[in-house]
């Protein structure tokens, strides 16, 4: 009995150790945010760049500016500019995304579907041809006008892009 009990104890310790390693792996890697994407290098091949105008409405505030969208397979880069400064930059690469708000020097990054509150990442995705998930809604018309709206918050970005 002494040996059997001892062997069972070793197995239990190994099982507990395995669970601890698994839990540590999940905690240490699963909770880390994805690193910020480096700025897109539009001088490399494959990018299609379009420019236009956009209006960003958030609450009672409304801000008009220029929008620059660059798309290539699996990636996008969008800037909302009020000359001479970029106000918002949104970038995607595969499942990674980054949004930078210049006014408060805040950058948010992640993997997978970005939160609906980060409407600018959804603008880039929608204009790249991806269908957004609720509560994000995208509409466009035959003249090239488009609108991306968060139906929960009312935040809206609307505009047009040159062909």
Structure overview:
The protein has helices at residues 2-30, 119-127, and strands at residues 48-58, 61-72, 75-82, 85-93, 96-101, 106-111, 136-140, 145-150, 156-161. It is an alpha+beta fold and 163 residues long. The chain has 2 domains: 1-32; 48-161, Lipoprotein localisation LolA/LolB/LppX (outer membrane lipoprotein receptor (LolB), chain A, Clam). A 9-stranded antiparallel beta sheet has the order 6-5-4-3-2-1-9-8-7, with helices on one face. The chain is globular.
Give the end-to-end Cα distance, rounded to a whole number of Å.
Answer: 81 Å
What helical percentage do the residues reach?
10-25%
Question: How many individual β-strands?
Answer: 9
* Strand and helix order: HEEEEEEHEEE
Name given to the CATH homologous superfamily of the largest domain: Lipoprotein localisation LolA/LolB/LppX
Indicate the low-confidence ranges by residue numbers: 2-6, 15-32
Q: For the largest beta sheet, what order do the strands appear in spatially?
A: 6-5-4-3-2-1-9-8-7
CATH class of the largest domain: Mainly Beta
The SS-based structural class is alpha+beta
* CATH domain topology of the largest domain: outer membrane lipoprotein receptor (LolB), chain A
Count structural domains.
2
**How much is the average pLDDT?**
83
As a percent range, the share of strand residues is 35-45%
| Overall body shape | globular
Query: What is the rounded Rg?
Result: 23 Å
* CATH architecture term of the largest domain: Clam
């Amino acid at each position: 009995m002494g040996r059997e009990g001892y062997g069972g104890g070793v197995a239990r310790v190994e099982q507990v150790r395995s669970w601890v390693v698994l839990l540590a792996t999940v905690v240490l890697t699963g909770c880390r945010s994805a690193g910020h994407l480096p700025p897109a290098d539009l001088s490399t091949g494959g990018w299609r760049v379009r420019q236009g105008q956009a209006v960003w409405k958030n609450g009672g505030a409304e801000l008009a500016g220029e929008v620059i969208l660059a798309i290539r397979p699996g990636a996008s880069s969008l800037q909302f500019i009020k000359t001479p400064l970029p106000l918002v930059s949104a970038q995607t690469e595969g499942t990674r995304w980054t949004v930078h708000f210049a006014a408060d020097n805040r950058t948010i990054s992640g993997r997978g579907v970005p939160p609906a509150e980060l409407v600018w990442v959804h603008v880039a995705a929608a204009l790249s041809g991806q269908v957004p998930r609720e509560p994000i809604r995208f509409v466009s018309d035959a003249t090239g006008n488009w609108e991306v709206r968060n139906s929960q918050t009312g935040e809206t970005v609307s505009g047009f892009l040159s062909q």
